[in-house]
Amino acid sequence: MMERYYSLSNADRKRLELDEDRLLAVMLYNLIAFMIMMRVSKEEIRRKIRRILGRCHIGLTMSQQVNELLDNISNLNGNDIDLRPAGSRLLQKQSFTVHWGTDNTGDMLFMEVWDDCIILRSVLGEVYDRCWFEKLVNMTFCPKTKVLCLWRKADGETQLNKFYTKRCRDLYFSIKEAMEKAASRMKGSLPGQELGGEFPIRDVNTGEGGILQVCLEGICLIFENDKEFIELQKIRKCTTQKGDIFVLEEFDPNTKQILIRKYKSSTVRFICSCILAVIFLTVVLFQYCLVLYVQASSALLAFHRVVSIMVERRKLISANTVSNVNNHHTQQAIDGLGIVGI
Q1: pTM of the shown model
Q2: DSSP code string of 226-258
Q3: Burial of 198 (0-12, 13-18, 19+ CB in 10 A)
Q4: Coil, strand or helix: which one is 163?
Q5: What tens digit of pLDDT does each residue of 35-91 get?
Q6: Which of 128, 138, 226, 243 makes a 20 to 30 Å CA pair with 169?
Q7: Does any domain span residue 165?
Q8: pLDDT reported for residue 196
Q9: So what's the pLDDT on residue 121?
Q10: What is the 3-state secondary structure (H, E, C) of 99-123?
């Protein structure tokens, strides 16, 4: 928790501090209500609560309601004070029933999708595990097998967790939507979790040492006498062999063949997780831009239809006006000639 707190920006830290102050203020407010209901001495209530307020260092904004309640405590008795719910009780979360593994024979758990994390609860309601979104490296699902795969960082390694659920698609898009909202709010990241990076490598075939750079556009291979850039869309697959060999499969659009590159490094796990994170972010951004494009296209089409309808109406009004004027002139000419209709 403290590691995540120190990695946040100043604005996000301030938001968490205000949430903590709000939670403490609600707890003290409800504590006063219980103490009054239990007929505790009101002077003792004032002394205890003000002492706790001083130790908690709650801001004036959140402690104002508690102080106002203490000022009017002499007029309160029994159940006069309504209890206030904690902020966590007001949060909207989605809960799904999942099973460990690839079928329904695994242990049943409840997966809750929150604003900034995923919480796994046992059937008894106990918190089994928590996964922050910034530690989530990749996420996929298979609608046929109904299995959701989550890759996340834990103790410097990338772990794969598989969950079976009948609502696999709904769970995937629920997590994806929550991650997009969290990404728009959070500006900081955990130390060592920045997208991209530089890793020392050694070519297995030539034995030449170099540096592998990962960025949003792709992978850059830098050696002493050579430098090559591989675009992200050309990367077909990246795996590891024997724990210290990084295998990169590149698709060559000119020859329509797959080039296999092998590099030896002590950081192959970090290289794979870094590339997976970049690919996952690119896919999310592409889907988000695609949604914006579809929405903009729909809005533009609707605007075009409205303008077309308005133009057609104006043309119709103009045609009716011209027709009325012509009829009026014709009637005047007939009246001038003295022609009487039968």
Answers
A1: 0.47
A2: -EEEEEGGGEEEEEEETTTEEEEEEEETTTTEE
A3: middle
A4: strand
A5: 999 989 989 999 998 898 888 888 887 888 888 888 888 888 888 888 888 776 666
A6: 128
A7: yes
A8: 65
A9: 92
A10: EECCCCCCCEEEEEECCCEEEEECC
Helices (H), the chain: 2-7, 10-37, 42-56, 60-71, 87-90, 168-185, 268-337
Query: What average pLDDT is seen over the chain?
Result: 79
Q: Nearest 5°: CA angle at 107, between 106 and 109?
A: 125
Looking at 155, 187, 219, the residue that finishes a domain is: 187
Longest distance between any two alpha carbons in the chain, whole Å: 112
One-letter identity of residue 152: R
The C-alpha atoms of residue 127 and residue 92 are separated, in whole angstroms, by 18
Q: Which residues of the chain have pLDDT under 70?
A: 1, 7-9, 88-92, 156, 184-196, 281, 284-297, 299, 303-304, 306-307, 319-342
Number of structural domains (the chain) is 3
Residue 169: is it exposed, middle or buried by C-beta count within 10 angstroms (0-12/13-18/19+)?
middle
Give 83: exposed, middle or buried? Use CB within 10 Å, 0-12, 13-18, 19+.
exposed
> Where does residue 156 fall: left (phi above 0), alpha (psi -120 to 50 degrees), or beta otherwise?
left
118: CATH:
2.30.29.30
327: in domain: no
Together in a domain, 74 and 20: yes
Last residue of a domain, one of 25, 60, 81: 81
Structural domain contains residue 312: no
In a domain, 68, yes or no: yes
Q: Read off the tokens for 287.
A: 């889907």
Expressed as residue numbers, the domain containing 243 is: 198-290
Which of 69, 71, 67, 68 is CA-nearest to residue 80? 69
The answer on 204 and 279 residing in a single domain is yes
pLDDT at position 166: 92
Judgement on whether residues 206 and 229 belong to the same structural domain of the protein: yes
- Token pair for residue 194? 């920045």
Q: How far is CA 65 from CA 11, 24, 127, 213, in A?
A: 24, 12, 32, 54
Strands 245-252 and 235-241: antiparallel
